[in-house]
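This part of the workshop introduces the protein records we will be handling. The question running through the whole workshop is how a given chain folds. To make this concrete, we reproduce a full record directly below:
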Amino acid sequence: MINLKIVVIEDDEFLLNKIARVLKREIMSVFTFKNPMEALEKIPELSPDIIVSDINMPEINGIELYKILKDQNIEIPIILASAFSEPEYFIEAIKLKVKNFIVKPIDLDDLIQELKLFEKELQSTEEQLKRERMLVIQSKMAAMGEMLGNIAHQWKQPLNTISICASNLKIQKEMGHIKDEDNVLDDMTENITKSIKYMSDTINDFQNYLKPNKLETCFYLKDTIAKVESLVSALCKTNSIKIIKNIEDNIHLCSFQNELIQVLINIIKNSIDELVNLNDDDRIIKIDIFSEDETQIIIIHDSAGGIPKNIIKKVFEPYFTTKKDEGTGIGLYMSKQIITGHLNGSIDVSNEKFVVDNKEHVGAKFVLKLNSFNIC
């Protein structure tokens, strides 16, 4: 059996019954409609894999039916059948990108073969989507490992502060040094509260980053960079890496903020990995954000010396990595998929020079060009 759910629309009742009898022997689920208006009402609920429809029908023709579905953002492939051969039908069908156009009388064997081919295409598409979903999961898991390492770094100092303050409180109390008029207790309590708040903010940033948030929101890019910086700050501090920012005020974007954060972390983490190998004290990541017409541009430039010419064109390929056992090779690949497929933008990389404090540096330069969705 062909594992498809199909809708057949044909105003000729005799022909409709004939098609239904044959298809039901081969197809898993077949729904038939003599009236196209009734079919229009039921199709959203049935959610078929494909539609087979006559063109020349009363009330509305097959092309008009397909237009209405598309206007309702119901994207279901359609095979149109007609006893006529007027060129305008074919031209309009091509413009609408219909799945196929067949001429009556319908050869049901040919139709079944067409449906078998469509089933294979559908399975291939589903497999591709599964692979992409797995890559997204792997990319998130890799990011989780890195972020957990960052959190461990960021929590060491506040945990030490809490421990020291708690120990001091105990000692001071035992020695009878804490009196009502002293501010020692208040100071230590304040330090403990600040440390706990810092730890809470860190874990909240981490949790927000990992949320599978698929709702578009409007946000300032300055705030987005601040969130990214909070997640990598400990790693940068540990490795003496300076983040220099030049961000135009009030630049905002209407898009998926968490996915953009994932991309920025992937790029910055790669820069950090390269910068830690330098003996030079000038370990710099420079971030520039500005607007050009209606496009928001984010440039991330590091001073790690650049990407070798023989591999720079491969950095966005899946599973390509120069980190051997330590790398997954999916970070930059997923970054490009997210930028081009989800965030309405583009991403490019090159090696270029830049100047900071009258000193010239050279390194990889990632340029992200983003456009807002129409939700503001």
